[in-house]
Amino acid sequence: MIISIASGKGGTGKTTIATNLALSLGKVQVIDCDVEEPNANIFFNAEIKEREDVTVEIPEIDKEKCDYCGKCSEFCAYNALAVVPSDVLVFPELCHSCGGCEIVCPQNAINWKRKPVGKIEHGITNGVDFYHGLLNVGEIQAVPVIKALKKKIDKEGNVIIDAPPGTSCPVIESINGSDYCILVTEPTPFGLHNLKLAIAVVRHLYIPFGVIINRDGVGDKKVEMYCQTEKIPILMKIPHSEEIANLYSIGIPFVKKLPEWHEKFTELFRRIQEGVRT
Ligand code: SF4
Ligand code: SF4
After folding, report:
1. Are residues 81 and 134 in the same domain?
2. What domain count does the chain have?
3. Distance CA 255, CA 82 (A)
4. Which residue's CA is the nearest one to ligand 1's atom 6?
5. pLDDT tens by residue, 40-91
6. Which domain holds residue 72?
7. Do 234 and 179 reside in the same domain of the chain?
8. What residue owns the CA closest to ligand 2's atom 4?
9. Which residues are within 8 A (CB) of 261 and not within 5 positions of it... i.e. 6 or more apart?
């Protein structure tokens, strides 16, 4: 079963939920897809044993064949090509490797070269089979690294995906194909606003979902009221607690020190499993 953990914005406690749920389950695979800022391994401390480069294909113009007709740049929706009188400029960071420029080129003047955009790393700790991705500095496209990470998913086992924050392409790539999505939010007007955006995404992808309210007690009841009105299950509330915050600040998942939460996360997983089956 694949459970993704997402939220409309960063800093809501998404990684806290992913790590504590994983450690409560024992044998599980965790994929940290927040490739611009992967931080789950601060809590797992998995020793990285394997690394793989992630590369994408970028066009390379054969200037012997090119007649500078401009068809490739007209086609490219991402403005990754610019044709000037005696050159074709390629902007690799804008290219989405769609291959369209090659198809439209009448001179067969487009070849391909591979460009590294990031890497994925793997380690095992406390029964957790851990992967994360790292986008190279200066790269703007997280999706190829996330796609490479998702190829590592063991479909036979239980998998937790820690999605990037927000609601853009990297989030959709991360959570697409999940059996269930946990949306993490805070009980504030801003939290509610971002939760609504995240709900629109998971509904669009037809992924069953529920909500965890983190730092319960800091704000108001509008998130709860909204979930009740929309018949969205509130899976868990994690109180605004100094003890939990202190443990987080020193990189200790709170299930390690507060065993009652271990049981709560195990029970949460059981409920999600049952819900998905029905
Ligand atoms: S479409 Fe082909 S021939 Fe025309 S400018 Fe682009 S690379 Fe050159
Ligand atoms: S592969 Fe696609 S995105 Fe990249 S330059 Fe060609 S048309 Fe543009």
Report:
1. no
2. 2
3. 54
4. 72
5. 999 998 999 999 999 999 999 999 999 999 999 999 999 999 999 989 999 9
6. 63-108
7. yes
8. 95
9. 20, 24, 254, 255
Nearest ligand atom owner, CA of 63? 1
Alpha-carbon Rg of the chain, whole angstroms?
Answer: 22
Q: Is residue 31 part of a domain?
A: yes
Same-domain check for residues 34 and 127 = yes
Q: Which ligand is nearest to the CA of 68?
A: 1
Q: Which residues approach ligand 1 with their CB closer than 6 A?
A: 61, 66-72, 83, 88, 105, 107, 109-110
For residues 155 and 35, state if they share a domain: yes
Q: What is the mean pLDDT of residues 159-175?
A: 93
147 and 256 part of one domain: yes
Residues with Cβ within 8 Å of 229's Cβ and at least 6 positions away in sequence, in order, are: none
Angle, helix 189-204 to helix 222-230, in steps of 10 degrees:
30
- The CB density around residue 226, as the number of other CB atoms within 10 Å, is 16
Residues 224 and 86 in one domain: no
Q: Is 265 found in the same domain as 183? A: yes
- The C-alpha torsion from 269 through 272 and 273 to 278, rounded to 10°, is 160
Residue type present at position 245: A
Mean of pLDDT values over 126-130: 90
Find the CATH number of the domain harbouring 85: 3.30.70.20
pLDDT of 21-36, one tens digit each? Answer: 999 998 899 999 999 9
Which class for 71: exposed (0-12), middle (13-18), buried (19 or more C-beta within 10 A)? middle
Whole-number Å distance between alpha carbons of 28 and 21: 10
Q: Are residues 152 and 258 in the same domain?
A: yes
Domain for residue 201, yes or no? yes
